[in-house]
Amino acid sequence: MDPGDWPGNLGAGLLPAPDGSCQGVFLRYDLFGGRGPAMIIGNLPEGSPAREVPDGQVPFEVAQLLIALENDEEVTVTDTEEMPVMQGDNLLIVRRLKLSESRISCVQFDRSDNVLVTIAAWDRPITDDLYALLKPLPAELFQQG
Length: 145
Prior knowledge:
single chain; mainly beta; seven-stranded antiparallel β-sheet; 2 helices; 7 strands; 40% strand; globular
């Protein structure tokens, strides 16, 4: 992802493992210029403990979005639906998660290198054109340093 492609503020964070490997990369996108996050995008490699979420519980990225918004209401996943989306020449099977908090949009898809991408957005739908802006993070980023 190129920060120049996005208006607003873009920040990044790493989820480190005890062995020094990277268990996830999170991008926090603030369209509102310091007035709250609009979107959190997570990239979790295979084996990351943050991928292990019990049924009905929200993904890590949704939980982080709620924390950033200082929203302590309990939110759950009420339904999921899968849909095909083209990203360049690649076909993605995108899972749309329906949540008990209707102002949060959330989608997930698996990349060909087994990295789970989750996008959680506040008060705005996630449309197909968003996928065109996403650029894969290099696999080397997730290796032990």
